[in-house]
């Protein structure tokens, strides 16, 4: 017999209890850091002795923090564009292509997801040192695009797989050239996949720290890199404020993604 | 085979010449040649894998045939890319563009052709009226039933007045009642527009209901082309006889073939003169006799004279007719469908022996290979 929530009897309260504990476990660090960002204590004391917006003022008044935010946003946006474009082309080859070694190629494209990030960081650092891309915006975007590519390919190729090729054929019979058909019919048809790929790529770049530490220079630091650096130098509640902003944007994007997903199911 | 070397005058509008398509060692279409007149409704009928869809896709441009050519209104078609062939097509699957409304779907081929806004507007209205969906222009495909979606697909395929409309089993996903309803609409639309239609189906009833002519496919070849009446009453091959309608196939020996007729001698010695004889190209004489269940009359064994005796083992009441299943003396089963109004051995039941009679004209001799 199927175990459903309704037939579980008293056990269901155990399940509810467990779920609440897991949720708290996952959320407490986030709540903790957000609470600290509003706390008046210099030393990140918890519970905060009082409440203040001072750290946000300091954060937004500091040109280095602002520069980092801008850098993060710029790199994340460029990474999104590159990852989605490449992911789209790759997905067409992987889904529609009919060649030997297609499955192997698909696996190869997903390796950045499996390889330890540190390994990728070291490898890219060594390679970029040779070609002079370390500490440049280009290098940063290339590195993050490599990491983001699997996260773009998976939703886009899933969407393309689900999209009936007959629909594209119908557009061609109707008189659209193959490129016109892909642009005007197939792309809108897989837009939810493209959108999911874009959000995942943006978020990956936005909160990525390991490879970013390798890529960063004193003048080019993303928000996570600056948070990491500040943690070691001066443990100021400004870090908490910066982290809270990082979390806020992430949550916003996740909500947008969820809404799009919901809209599609209607 | 030069595409330009075909200047001979012919009244065929669409000409399929020696189309052949192979995938490695697999032959999908062996050799198909067919002429279709302007305004004709021609159906490709056949079991799955018989090459009918592949032939249709070659005309649409989604499959490049290994050899052969297709001439449409004097122009070689195979060198033209699919999107420039100006052919209409309705697919087996639902292929409306999911992000566009019904009206925008029908407008799509006109937009691609850069027609003026006013022309598009009036054409879309005209097409939706043709398929009787004028109130649904603002719906999305996901808000419509399968039958409605296929009607919109039909409107979209006809919006640019294509000379030829291809339909690849467009109703196979619909239930029987809806299918018959849309078949009626397709017939009406064919009459109203006069468009030449090539229709693929594996459903013989659908083919008989819709078509002017039927091309019956089998194993990458056309077995016979003709009206439904031709295929039913004058099957050219044993395959045609077996595919269209119900048939009895009885073991016989054909003797004294002359003028396309022969004497059929059954294993029990019963004889029948003047049965039409069909040779299946190979030249060997017929050795199987085909007769439709409804062509057979039942006579009591006592009644004098000719007839093939069978022993009844089952009878089934079918309302307007009675189905009698019996076995010949050498063990072959025979099915007879006799109208209730007919006389003869109506009352016979299981265990009785009756004689079967039919007009020699209504049976056919085929080779047994």
UniProtKB/TrEMBL annotation, chain A:
InterPro entries per record: MetI-like (IPR000515), MetI-like_sf (IPR035906)
UniProt xrefs under Pfam families: BPD_transp_1
Transmembrane segments: 12-38, 75-95, 107-128, 140-160, 194-215, 235-260
A GO cellular component annotation in the UniProt record: plasma membrane
Keyword set, alphabetical order: Cell inner membrane, Cell membrane, Membrane, Transmembrane, Transmembrane helix, Transport
GO biological processes: transmembrane transport
Compartments where found: Cell inner membrane; Cell membrane
CDD domains: TM_PBP2
Domain of life: Bacteria
ABC transmembrane type-1 domain segment(s): 69-257
UniProt keyword Hydrolase, yes or no: no
Membrane-topology descriptor: Multi-pass membrane protein
Family statement drawn from the similarity comment of this UniProt entry: Belongs to the binding-protein-dependent transport system permease family.
Name of protein: ABC transporter permease
């Amino acid at each position: 017999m199927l175990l459903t929530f309704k037939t579980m009897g008293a056990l269901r309260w155990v399940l509810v209890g467990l779920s609440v504990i897991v949720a708290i476990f996952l959320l407490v660090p986030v709540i903790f850091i957000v609470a600290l960002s509003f706390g008046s204590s210099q030393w990140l004391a918890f519970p905060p002795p009082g409440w203040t917006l001072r750290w946000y003022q300091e954060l937004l008044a500091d040109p280095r923090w602002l520069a980092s935010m801008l850098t993060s946003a710029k790199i994340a946006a460029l990474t999104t564009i590159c990852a989605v474009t490449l992911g789209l082309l790759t997905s067409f080859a992987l889904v529609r292509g009919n060649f030997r070694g297609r499955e192997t190629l698909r696996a190869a494209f997903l390796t950045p997801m499996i390889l330890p990030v540190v390994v990728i960081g070291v490898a890219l650092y060594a390679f970029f040192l040779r070609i002079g891309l370390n500490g440049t915006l280009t290098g940063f975007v290339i590195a993050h695009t490599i990491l983001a590519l699997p996260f773009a390919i998976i939703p886009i190729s899933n969407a393309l797989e689900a999209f009936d090729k007959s629909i594209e054929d119908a557009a061609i019979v109707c008189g659209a050239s193959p490129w016109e058909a892909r642009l005007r019919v197939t792309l809108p048809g897989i837009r939810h996949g493209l959108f999911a790929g874009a959000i995942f790529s943006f978020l990956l770049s936005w909160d990525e720290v390991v490879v970013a530490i390798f890529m960063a220079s004193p003048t080019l630091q993303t928000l996570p890199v600056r948070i990491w650096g500040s943690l070691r130098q001066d443990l100021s509640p400004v870090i908490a404020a910066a982290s809270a902003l990082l979390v806020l944007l992430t949550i916003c994007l996740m909500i947008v993604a969820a809404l799009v997903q919901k809209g599609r199911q209607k | 085979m030069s595409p330009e070397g075909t200047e001979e005058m012919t009244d065929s509008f669409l000409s399929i010449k020696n189309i052949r398509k192979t995938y490695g060692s697999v032959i999908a279409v062996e050799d198909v040649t067919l002429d279709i007149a302007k305004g004709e409704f021609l159906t490709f009928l056949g079991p799955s894998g018989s090459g009918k869809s592949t032939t249709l896709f070659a005309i649409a441009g989604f499959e490049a045939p290994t050899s052969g050519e297709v001439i449409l209104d004097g122009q070689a078609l195979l060198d033209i890319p699919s999107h420039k062939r100006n052919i209409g097509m309705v697919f087996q699957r639902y292929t409306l563009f999911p992000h566009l409304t019904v009206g925008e779907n029908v407008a799509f081929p006109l937009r691609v052709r850069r027609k003026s806004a006013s022309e598009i507007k009036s054409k879309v209205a005209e097409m939706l009226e043709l398929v009787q969906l004028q109130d649904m222009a603002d719906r999305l495909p996901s808000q419509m039933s399968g039958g409605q979606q296929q009607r919109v697909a039909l409107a979209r395929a006809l919006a640019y007045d294509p000379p030829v409309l291809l339909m690849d089993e467009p109703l196979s996903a619909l239930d029987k009642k809806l299918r018959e309803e849309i078949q009626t609409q397709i017939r009406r639309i064919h009459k109203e527009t006069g468009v030449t239609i090539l229709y693929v189906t594996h459903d013989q009833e659908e083919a008989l209901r819709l078509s002017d002519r039927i091309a019956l496919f089998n194993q990458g070849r056309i077995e016979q082309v003709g009206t439904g009446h031709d295929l039913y009453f004058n099957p050219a091959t044993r395959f045609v006889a077996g595919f269209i309608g119900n048939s009895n196939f009885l073991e016989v020996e054909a003797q004294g073939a002359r003028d396309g007729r022969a004497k059929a001698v059954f294993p029990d010695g019963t004889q029948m003169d003047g049965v039409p004889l069909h040779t299946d190209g190979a030249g060997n004489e017929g050795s199987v006799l085909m007769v439709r269940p409804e062509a057979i009359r039942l006579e009591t064994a006592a009644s004098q004279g000719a007839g093939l005796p069978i022993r009844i083992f089952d009878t089934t009441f079918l309302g307007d007719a009675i189905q009698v299943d019996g076995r010949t003396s050498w063990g072959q089963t025979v099915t007879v469908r006799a109208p209730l109004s007919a006389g003869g051995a109506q009352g016979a039941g299981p265990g009785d022996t009756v004689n079967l009679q039919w007009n020699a004209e209504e049976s056919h001799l085929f080779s047994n290979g």
